Amino acid sequence: MKLLTNAFLTFGTLFFAACGENTTNTVAPDVNAVEINSSDIIMYSTDGNLSVRAFATYTDSAREDVTNFVDWASSNSSVASSSVGVISANANGGETNVIVNYSNFSDQMNVKVIKLTSINYSVIDTNYTSAAQDINVSGNFENNDANITMNDNITWLSDGNSTIQESDSSRISIIIGDQQALLYGVMFGAVFSCHPISKELLSISYSDVNVSDLENNQTIYIYGNYENNETNATLIHNILWTWDANSTIEEANSTAIALKIHNVPTTITATIFPGTDCAKDFNQTWQ
User: Fold this and answer.
1) Which of 253, 237, 254 lies closest to 202 in space, CA to CA?
2) Exposed (0-12), middle (13-18) or buried (19+): which is 66, by Cβ within 10 Å?
3) Is the pTM of this model over 0.70?
4) Is residue 277 part of a domain?
5) At which of 90, 114, 138 does a domain end?
6) Domain that includes residue 55, residue range
7) Is residue 78 in some structural domain?
8) pLDDT (tens digit, 9 = 90+) per residue, 85-123?
9) Is-contact 213 261, C-beta < 8 A?
């Protein structure tokens, strides 16, 4: 019996030894490089998100999409950011480098965001106040590209004399009132542009003033002269009145001012859209 047991042990040893001799270990190839599948990017500040991919090359020449596994970074995220291959503009102009890191290898590309310099607005009928009208908008950029469709990063606000029904970056559906109206374009949290959508006021006319009548209130009637040869019309704009030391405006409304002249010459100023980039001054001097 002892001899038989030893025989089985010897057989088992030989069997497992033989199996061990035929076992092979598979070694995974190492990463040899990582790259972004795009050259440098130039994008408008009003572009939507742009997508790129990252690929790893291995020592066995295999290539794999590793977009979801690399570390994405931007050298200046205030200009543009990157996340899982998505590039987003964060400012109206500037440059940054998008960088990927993977298994001790890295690659980068330059991203230039082109600055929006002005906005074009289509014309609407400023006398039509009963329903919405569409304003189509496009952008002009610092590289002299003009009338470019804007896709993202701009939103629209209106003042109390108009109502935006719906909008996107390139179109605003708006109902205007019978008074002054302003449309604001907002980019990256700040007002970029204001656009008057009421009739354009060209000048203001005044009724006669007696410059010899000092220190007494005079009622001076005021009229607006608008585009399309509309003259001596009732002012539709809210006006901020200012004056020099030689006069005082005691009261004012849309049709008249109460003016007290202390001395001449004197100048008063009517400002429409005060406190905005659309502000415009109209000066009147009496000698």
Assistant:
1) 237
2) middle
3) yes
4) yes
5) 114
6) 31-114
7) yes
8) 999 999 999 999 999 999 999 999 999 999 999 999 998
9) yes
